Amino acid sequence: MPQQWPATDIARMILDGFDDYREHFRRITDGARERFEQARWQEIQIASAARINLYEEKVGETVARLREHFAADTLMDVSCWPLVKSAYISVIDLRFDDELSETWYNSIFCGLFSHDLISDGCMFIHTTRPSLRRARAAQTRTYKPQGQLSAMLASIFADYRFSEDYADLPGDVRRLEAQLRENLPDWVCKDPELSVELFSSVLYRNKGAYLVGRIYTRDEQWPLVIPLLHREGRGIQIDALITDEADVSIIFSFTRSYFMVDVPVPAEFIGFLRRILPGKHIAELYTSIGFYKHGKSEFYRALINHLANTDDQFIMAPGVRGMVMSVFTLPGFNTVFKIIKDRFSPSKNVDRATVIEKYRLVKSVDRVGRMADTQEFADFRFPLSKFDPACLAELLEVAPSTVSVEGETVLIRHCWTERRMTPLNLYLDNANEAQVREALEDYGLAIKQLAAANIFPGDMLLKNFGVTRHGRVVFYDYDEICFLTEANFRHIPAPRTPEDEMASEPWYSIGPLDVFPEEFPPFLFADAGQRKLFDQLHGELYNADYWKGLQEAIRAGKVIDVFPYRRKGLDNE
After folding, report:
1. Cα–Cα distance measured from residue 64 to residue 306, given in angstroms and rounded to the nearest whole number
2. Which of 136, 281, 416, 520 is most buried (most C-beta within 10 Å)?
3. Could you report the per-residue pLDDT of 204-249, keeping only the tens digit for each?
């Protein structure tokens, strides 16, 4: 090893790249307030996608800069990288975003080296950040009603103001006070120690702004979310007051776009969210505020910890086997792992590159609570003993180019992870009449809300949708998705002759992007009762004109509202 090997210089250049990324991330995030105030809805979607793409762009720039400034034999001597890691630890020690900077370092290392060289000596497989040091109190505002709920609410909105005035603050305060009294036990509202704590920064996503915090007494607490909407020409409307943990969890769901929020000390805010949403994993919380790469790091750490401390084995996921993807899971870990098969069913007119493109597309579009977020991984290595033999045999058979056995290790060269859900077809098989109706109602809403976000699922079979633990129907199979505006929705032409009507093949031409909604009923439902019920609930989905109307609205620049919460006493305009 050369005596003057430049470990500190390399470490500082990596950190300079991180600072550049953080500055650009902050600029995009800081613009959220103005975009909300000025109702620049299309710009919100552009900014959201730009912020997601920013990470890989800045990693690429930093890797290129390192290659330019350091000789290849120096930079690529992996035996010296423990020195870089040590030097890097010393320069991030006093930072307020130190846990994110570790993930950044890992990304740079992976950009330079093969994944075969990943080790905790050269990288941060395990964090070096002392959790107690970072567990400081988040920046919050506290309000004490002292029996005057309406005065307290008025005080909150005096502190959280925008360039646009509130449309009807007195009316909104009266409505929110009624919701607060309805949501909480009677004794809570009379408790002299009742307090409301809100995070100082407003969270922004899509067309909404959110105040997030908690309501608490000496002995109990409830999460609190207050969504705000900007009704153009009418000012800011306080839309709801949400205190149910399940409803708040849905707002921070893995099916939603990422919030934009000013968090100078990310760990503080994550700690605050964990207090009000104890059922959420830390990986999901980091991801929910745009730090999806660090969410990926936390997910991986949780996964290897689970494997090290349980007897869990990978098995094939329950449900109908996919024609493009093979899906396996760990029974005790709420995730599925999806790999692309080497050969597809003849009915699938896609190739491997197209499937990868479709899955990556989902990352940057508005998922409106109806598409599962994914994480993409390369070169996963797991102990052979962690695979059920039947599962491993099937993976080796359908995807030998992706899955291989190297001694006592199974190598997964490429996969995606998603939250595990109950496939909708299996859910319906075991549901009672009321549950069937509720699930089919939500299935139709999922299709409509995806369409409102300019997403057409393509393959809308029940097996490609799942039911979450909160009972929401979510789409999770992306190999045939496209933008709604790309599809060509058509009515089936009338037969020209009796022979046309009796023919086994269509009498009309069909283009690659043609969709005939009239064909949906028998295609989607083998069960005649379910088919009839869905027709009653969402029969307009069988009409090409319905889809064309949505396309016209999207092309005209309309960003359609899809609310991540139940709205009480308000129209869904």
Report:
1. 36
2. 416
3. 998 999 999 999 998 899 999 999 999 888 899 999 999 999 999 9
3-state secondary structure 288-321: HCCCHHHHHHHHHHHHHHHHHHCCCCEEECCCCC
pLDDT at site 572 = 37
Residue 345 near residue 324, CB atoms below 8 Å: yes
Question: How do the domains of the chain map onto residue ranges?
Answer: 7-129, 140-302, 310-420, 424-555
SS3 content of the chain, % helix, strand, coil (to 5): 45, 15, 35
Nearest-angstrom CA–CA distance, 476 and 497: 42
| Contacts of 200 by beta carbon, 8 Å cutoff, 6+ apart | 139, 140, 141
Asked if residues 472 and 439 have their Cβ atoms less than 8 Å apart, the reply is: no
State the pLDDT at residue 133.
53
Q: Which residues of 324-338 are buried (b: 16+ CB within 10 A; e: fewer)?
A: bbbbbbbeebeebbb
Q: Known catalytic residue: 373? A: yes
CA-based nearest residue to 206, from 446, 448, 38, 44: 44
Q: Which residues of the chain have pLDDT under 50?
A: 1-3, 569-573
CA separation for the pair 460, 436 (Å, rounded)? 17
**488-489 and 514-515 strand pairing:** parallel
Task: Compute how many other C-beta atoms are within 10 angstroms of the C-beta atom of residue 544.
Answer: 16
Q: Which residue, 426, 524, 424, 414, is CA-closest to 468?
A: 424
| Distance of alpha carbon 533 from the chain centroid | 31
Q: What is the 3-state secondary structure (H, E, C) of 41-99?
A: HHHHHHHHHHHHHHHHHHHHHHHHHHHHHCCHHHHCCHHHHHHHHHHHHHHHCCCCCHH
- Phi and psi angles of residue 454, each rounded to the nearest 5 degrees, phi first: 70, 35
Note whether 310-420 and 424-555 share their fold: no
Among residues 293, 93, 271, which one has the least CA distance to residue 282? 271
Where is 404: in which H helix or E strand?
A: strand 403-406
pTM of the model: 0.89
What is the third-level CATH fold of 424-555?
Transferase(Phosphotransferase); domain 1 (1.10.510)
pLDDT digits over 114-145, tens only? Answer: 777 788 899 999 999 876 555 556 699 999 98
Q: Long-range contact list for 16-19, CB < 8 A, 24+ apart?
A: 16/62, 17/58, 17/59, 17/61, 17/62, 17/65, 17/104, 17/108, 18/62, 18/100, 18/101, 18/104, 18/105
- Active-site position among 239, 366, 373, 479: 373
- Report DSSP state, residue 382: E
Phi, psi of 230 (to 5 degrees): -105, 110
Distances (CA, A) of 43 to 149, 205, 291, 469, 559: 37, 12, 20, 33, 11
Architecture of domain 310-420: 2-Layer Sandwich (3.30)
